[in-house]
User: Which sequence fits this backbone?
């Protein structure tokens, strides 16, 4: 049985992906802060889930949590990092910006580095980061969120280059969702909002195919491209 960890499996995309991995015969370590949600998920399929409750901003504690969970799983083939936070912050509330950076930048880096080093040590493995279309340009509505997703995209690209240099079968996948129907995707003016089941199915396929980058759902690739080529003088008026 293959072994996976999904960081941020208590709700949303991570939760649905964990369900799918278990249904496809993975043993899955599920993490998050909301222990009851994780225990509820575990109770649906106890043989396939192991719970580990930790805050992904606790950078000092992360290696220990991940080492312990990997030991309980009996190995690790795949680590998916879905934990993330993002809030509209028109007034530049410093707390919101710093909380976003703490999870999406500092926590992300610690977990990504732990995974890369672990996979390098065992000479194989697959790390998947759930980034966002938001990482392609800046936004005045949520500056830290968009910037943190740009950081994640660039970081994953860097790790992919490192993985290539190892000449080992280590894969780095960047999943870029558009809108997915989860707690995070609140607000108005949303369009092409994908059901979380559909998003998870496409993410699972991208993992199986060991994609470098995948847009979820697939048609968001077009928005990503338009967003990316949008001239700066138009972008700053949005
Ligand atoms: N939904 C969308 O439209 C959309 C679009 C683009 C990208 N994304 C990305 O997809 C990822 C998953 O988001 P989602 O839509 O599934 O939202 P969600 O349902 O709110 O899930 C967020 C997950 O992150 C975890 N998390 C938040 N803060 C954490 C912390 N400090 N420590 C550990 N875990 C923490 C939550 O677990 P606990 O609260 O239990 O800790 C939860 O499992 C995020 O990275 C998000 O940026 C989502």
Assistant:
């Amino acid at each position: 049985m293959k072994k996976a960890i999904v960081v941020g499996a208590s709700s949303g995309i991570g939760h649905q992906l964990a369900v799918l991995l278990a249904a496809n015969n993975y043993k899955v370590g599920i993490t998050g802060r909301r222990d009851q949600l994780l225990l509820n998920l575990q109770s649906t399929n106890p043989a396939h889930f192991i719970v580990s409750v930790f805050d992904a901003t606790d950078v000092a504690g992360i290696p220990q949590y991940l080492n312990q969970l990997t030991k309980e799983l009996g190995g690790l083939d795949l680590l998916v990092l879905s934990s993330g936070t993002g809030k509209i912050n028109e007034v530049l509330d410093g707390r919101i910006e710093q909380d976003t950076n703490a999870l999406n930048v500092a926590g992300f880096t610690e977990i990504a580095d732990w995974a890369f080093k672990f996979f390098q040590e065992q000479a194989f493995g697959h790390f998947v980061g759930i980034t966002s279309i938001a990482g392609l340009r800046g936004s005045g509505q949520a500056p830290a969120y968009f910037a943190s997703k740009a950081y994640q995209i660039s970081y994953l690209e860097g790790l992919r280059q490192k993985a290539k240099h190892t000449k080992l079968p280590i894969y780095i996948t960047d999943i870029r969702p558009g809108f997915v129907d989860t707690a995070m995707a609140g607000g108005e003016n949303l369009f092409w909002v994908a059901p979380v089941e559909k998003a998870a199915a496409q993410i699972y396929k991208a993992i199986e195919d060991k994609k470098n980058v995948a847009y979820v759902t697939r048609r968001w690739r077009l928005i990503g491209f338009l967003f990316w080529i949008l001239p700066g003088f138009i972008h700053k008026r949005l």
